[in-house]
Amino acid sequence: MSAPAILQVEHLSKSFRGLKAIADVSFAIAPGSITSIIGPNGAGKSTLFNLITGYLAPTAGTVRFNGRPITGMATNRIAELGIARAFQIARPFRDISVRENVRIGALFGKKGLRDVEATTERGMKLASLAHLADRRASALTVGQLRHLEVARAIATRADLLLADEPCAGLNPTETAAMIDVLRQIRSSGVTVLLVEHDMPSVMEVSDRLLVLDAGMLIADGSPHEVAKDAKVIAAYLGTPEAS
Amino acid sequence: MSLVLQTVADGLVLGGIYALAAVGFSLIFGVMHVINLSHGVLVLIGAYLALVLSNSLGVDPLLVLPLVMIVLFGMGYCYQRFLIQRTISGPPLASMLLTFGIALMLQNAMIWVFSPDMKNITPSYAFDSFKIAGLTFDAVRVSALAASLVLLSCLALLLKFSHLGRLIRATAQQTLAAQLCGVNVRHVYALTFAVSAAFAGAAGIVIGVILPFSPADESLWTLNAFVVVVLGGVGSPAGALLGGLLLGVVNTLTAQYVGPSFPNVTMFLMLVLLLLVRPHGLLGNAFSASR
Amino acid sequence: MKRSPLSIALLAAICIAVLAAGPFLLPPFYVRVGQLMLYSAGLGLAWSILGGFAGYASFGHAAFIGVGAFTAGLVENSAAGLGPLWLLPLGLIAGGGACAVLSAVVAYPILRLRGTFFAIAMLGVSHVCAELTNNVDFFQGSLGLNFPPIAPASADPADFFYWLYLAAGLVVLFIAWWIRHSRFGAGLLSIREDEDTARMLGVPTERYKRLAFVTSAVLTGLLGVIYAHSLGYITTDSVYRDDTNLSLIVYSLLGGMGTLFGPVIGAFLLVFVTQVILARLLDFHLFATGLLLVLLVLAAPGGVVGVVRSLRRRRDKLAGAE
After folding, report:
1. H-helix or E-strand spanning residue A162
2. How confident is the model at residue C115 (pLDDT cuts 50, 70, 90)?
3. Is C131 in contact with B264 (Cβ distance < 8 A)?
4. Please, what CATH class does the domain formed by C28-321 belong to?
5. What per-residue confidence (pLDDT) applies to C171?
6. For a designed S-S bond to C258, which of A98, B202, C52, C274 qualifies (C-beta 3.0 to 4.6 A apart)?
7. Domain span at B216
8. How many domains would you assign to chain B?
């Protein structure tokens, strides 16, 4: 790996009452990339996100962001360092407009000098929401709400965006639009970590794939390599012996 | 030593009545997350109805209990169906304020009808008492406690074994799923409220037999119910009983050993502390299993 | 729709001038009603910083009125040698300070509760304070406390307190306005809408909630100190009032929850209705208040501001369609 990693996950484990949701997972993410985490249902993808963003405390292991350990830090402190998250089930501030939603991201998020209004406009533009700026969040469609999640997260001036299934439940047109947004975010210099189920989009957009199964990292490589990995195929389809 | 035992025994008797007065409040809170600030009014309506009925029929106040419960059952059903139901989907404050408004109106109405003065229901055995193992028990208090325990057990059995009980529990746990299975949720909510009101009325009679009451007491009984629920846990008769007995004992002990005007301080201190330590009470929420 | 800052400043100046002229124009009864309206509006605004802006509706803010009033009274009585000019500032500092300490301590545990649990726990706090004031001899709650007169001899005390309430109300309004338009206010709004998401976006939710709680408590306490002076003599029951606990919610609800002017409009309306219109129906007073509450919840859950806004939105939509 040439550049120093923006995110380093080292021997991370999480158990829920003895059940290992994440078992000794380690990986590092290079800045400026789109990395996707895939895996069957219950593989531990969302738990991993919750551990990185401080929503859950790990049983063991550390998470480093730009070399700095962030394990056990409060969620809002982690956001101040520059990690943002877009939820799968959009959680907009319903009673206020799109612009005000994004503006709250711009007012808070990563610490440092800021130009709130410009950041707000830029966030809406990156997520192609500028035409809906004055609409109330509660009046948006599911697809638009996903864009709002991304816009608000980007407006925090995060260096790392964790996007939880941004394409789930979207139709092909909306999916294409979302992939376009993610690409633009990457080219603006933000590193993206993605959990996604929609395989065609994953293959299209990712620079690298991490495959989780039963809490363990079973494959790591370019989309092309991973698609041919026997362990991955077995995890998704089941091994002939086992079934 | 015997003073301590006597105080605890008095507390337990009082606590059984607190439990009965709180169980309906607890049920509504558990099933539909409504804080019924008019609960105390329903309790007092029970007491006044018993006063009027037992005087005019010339029978023991505990004998008019079924009649009072039926009247309040009907009132409760309509109250929920036509008023509270409209606020169910709104913010939690909406139902709280609605029931508070109703409480004010009914309190005012009771003042017109019954005057603001203290009243009490005096059964024939009002001044009898007996001794067990050196402790003195008033006949009224013991019969009131017995009535409370019987009624609480009836409600527990109703919730556990009857068809209505199953409907109520299913609706509380998974409102949407119950709806999809063909349960008429509005009807079940209204029935739950009706049951709650009926038990509030019954509690009113029991209270009326042992304590004087006036329209201004309604907020006291609502607050008592809230404390009992926070102490014991939401939704179950067992939780109400535990909370009620605790509150009763703590109240009599503080009155005896700290000072007669301090039970309220300890009660609210207990309320605040318990909310902080265990927001769902000692027994948790009886309906939260699958939430 | 946007008006220029100049016209807003002009409008504000006219409103203040009209309000300040009140005692010259109104008969004494209405000066008293005006006092109560201004005092209630101030309280409603102070409550709204926590309850409206951050969504933590307290059912026990009378605690701070009482703590502020009693602390001020005890301190002022022990410093009776001071001139009347110094007594009110001294009382305000003491009362506000006591509320700041109390709220800062209570905030840590109690702000972990949400929704109705928070509301009721605050009611508990209010009752604990009231019962202690009443039963611990030092506070003289059951006996009552006298307040030294502070109105200058040249002014009618009723007029003097009217202006004092007006000034205090404007200060609270300014603080609320400033919070509303600051980063702090945006953070509180995000907490009201969805606390977990707010934290995820980097809003220091715990610190903001505590700050809003203490601000709201101190402002309420300061108003309580003035109120105690205007009464001249207080007991536990005259400052720790459950109807105050309720009214503070109703002001916001009637005017429009979470809006800047909602609590002001709500307080003016409710005080006017109860003091002027319903005062004649003494026997029906509770009934009428209850009925008002029921109608309000069922018919206009967004309050006056909500109704105006939805009318305006409809008009804009019609205008846009043409």
Report:
1. strand A160-164
2. confident
3. yes
4. mainly alpha
5. 95
6. C52
7. 2-290
8. 1
ipTM of the complex: 0.83
Name chain C contacts of B223, Cβ cutoff 8 Å. 123
Query: What residues in B contact C127, CB-CB < 8 Å?
Result: 264, 268
In chain A the domains, ranked by start, together with CATH numbers, are: 7-237 (3.40.50.300)
DSSP C263-296: HHHHHHHHHHIIIIIGGG-GGGHHHHHHHHHHHH
Contact flag C286-B105 (C-beta cutoff 8 Å): yes
Task: Give the whole-angstrom CA distance, residue B241 versus residue C281.
Answer: 43
pLDDT tens-place string over residues B209-265: 888 888 888 888 888 888 888 888 777 888 888 889 988 888 888 888 887 777 777
Token output for B114: 């019954």
Contact list, A91 vs chain C (CB under 8 Å): 194, 196-197
| Adjacent-strand bridge partners of A64 | A8, A69
CA of C193: which chain A residue's CA is closest?
A93
Question: How high is the pLDDT of residue A1?
Answer: 46
- The CA distance from A93 to the nearest CA of chain C, in Å, is 5
Q: How far apart are CA C5 and CA B285, in angstroms?
A: 53
Question: Are B31 and B197 contacting, i.e. CB atoms less than 8 angstroms apart?
Answer: no
Whether residue C204 and residue A76 make contact (CB cut-off 8 A), yes or no, is: yes
pLDDT tens-digit profile of A65-114? 988 888 888 888 899 999 998 887 778 888 888 888 999 988 888 876 67
CB neighbour list of residue A169: distance below 8 Å, 6 or more residues apart: A142
